[in-house]
Each structure stands twice: as structure tokens, then as C-alpha cells.
Design goal:
4 helices, single chain
Amino acid sequence: MAQQDRGPGPRGEPRRDPTLVRNQPALRSSTGRVWLIVGAIMAAICFVVLLLQLRNSVPLAVLGAIVAAVLYGAMVLVRLFLPQPPRLVVMACFFAAIPVWTIVWLVLIIARSP
């Protein structure tokens, strides 16, 4: 079933359902600056949380923090070099990957600690 409103929109194209997540302005018309700011805050929090685990496992904590920083760096590269239609969705995916990575890595660190 198509996700459209009733009737065609202006100029005959189908109308977009504004309640769908993929039709939100943050994923369609943003410049990406908001994603970078929120991503930097998220990456910093995750970076600090992982570095606080240095007492449990130095190599795992450092590797986890590096990967969190690389994921944020990938967001910046996507913002600079990817064209608009897929850019914001890819940035949102990298944003979501940062805390997911941190949680999975924290579970691994805690499971390996004595």
C-alpha cells in the first residue's frame, strides 16, 4: 500500500505523508549542521564513557574510543562529500551507530573484566 495522502499534490506529483519518519524535515531538507552538532555531543559522551573503562581494559577502551571517533569522522566526511538526497539518511545512520557501538563495546569490556 502506498504511503500517500488522498489525491495528487501540486503539479500532479503524489503527496508525501508528513507522519512518516523518512519524510521529516531533518532527513529531507536540513543542511546537516544539526546532525554534526548532535553527533559531536554524542561522540564526546561515548568517548568519555569508553575512556572511563581504561581501568578494566586499556586496549579495548582505547580501541572503542577510536572507533567512536572514526564514526563521527565518517559523519563529517559524508556531510562534505555526499550529495543531498542520501546524505542526511547516511548521517543519521552514522549518528545511530555511535551509541550502539559504545553500548556493545561496553558490554564486551565489562564481560572481559575480572
